[in-house]
Amino acid sequence: MQDASYDWVVSSAVLEQVGHEDRQLEFIKESGRVGRNVFLTTPDRRHWLEFHTKLPFLHWLPKGCHRALLALLGKPFWAREQNLNLLTKTRLRRLAADALGDRFDITVRGICTLGMSSNVVLIARRRHVLSRR
Question: What are the CA-CA distances from residue 130 to residues 37, 85, 124, 127 (Å)?
Answer without folding.
Answer: 17, 38, 19, 10
